[in-house]
Amino acid sequence: MTARAGSAGGRRPAVSVRAGRLPKGKLAELFVLARERGAIDLAVGTPGVPQTPGPLVEEAVRALRSGANQYELPQGGVDVRRRIAESFATSADPDTELTITVGGTEALCVALLSLVDPGDEVIVLDPYYENFIGAVALAGARPRFVRRREPEEEPGAGWRLDPEELAAAFGSATRAILLNTPANPTGQTLHAEDFEVIAALCERWDVTVISDEVYANLVFDDRPHLSVADVPALRDRSVVIGSLSKSHAISGWRLGFLRARPEFSRVFRRVHEITTNGASAPLQLAVGLTDLFDAGALTAAKELAPARDETADILSRMGLSFRMPQGGCFILADIRGVTDEAADVYVRRVLEESSVLLAPGTPFFADEERGRSYVRVAFNRSPQVLEAARRRLTS
To answer: What is this structure's pTM?
Structure first.
């Protein structure tokens, strides 16, 4: 048998190079430990608030019983695409600019696989959603990190972009910039002045913006959500990733979407067909038959705001410091005021002493030394869960 060239010992590894380079999930071990202990989980963003809408569940049951159990159009059902399109501040054509995906995660992977080639660079704002790095690696691209200013560097603001550092990250190898607004884990939103800087750089370097906006309906304090698709200078070079998982509390349904101009959407749909062929038909039908995208029905942010404030009070009483999140369902808290321990050690100690699970900050930072000072806390929990967490964490 002839040995395959290109590796030690004359044989290639059994798995692909890009699969072998995928970063390991750093939180899985803690989740297993927390479940074994019956701990209160404030680490994962699985919704406890808001409640899954009853009418949506009834429509899903009706769809299943009516026989809607076979393939839907790969690009998604007509009604669900229309409902989502009607919810946007800036209009989109549901027939040519929207694709329903198997959650926001598939949308992210489809966008990157469609838009970047191996060796290209993708700009990632740091800290970031952990799955961004794996998705970039799966596409064979390289992340180029741009550090956000920490709250201690910029009192009263924090987690903002430095325009000069952002500009320095762009170059001939840059193919896309990956945004997240509202952001996981910081809870901060991008503003018009941020998009102005980003638009000028993307125009100069001919770069596409991929904007993860899965928390678009979870913006607090009556702030409007500003989408990259609402920015005229970015409309034609932008891709929006959306999801119903948190806003409609149906994370297990795995329904997301991609919004982009028709030229992009045609390619996305082909890649989507090859990867999954389509999202769940009866669940799409249920969403398309409800009015849950109407302005009066989108109450998730109002329901979640008290949970954010309650969690913020708990963390303050623990001695942690943080910037109040403007959106999303997480608080990124600084532990340096209470301990010199690294975040993973602190999280394990809190789990041992209080039976409450927090997420260490290291998976969300390119530099683990920065991340060791932070924990991420999910606050989309019921009042009963948060009250139990308060008793355990502040006793």
So the answer is: 0.94
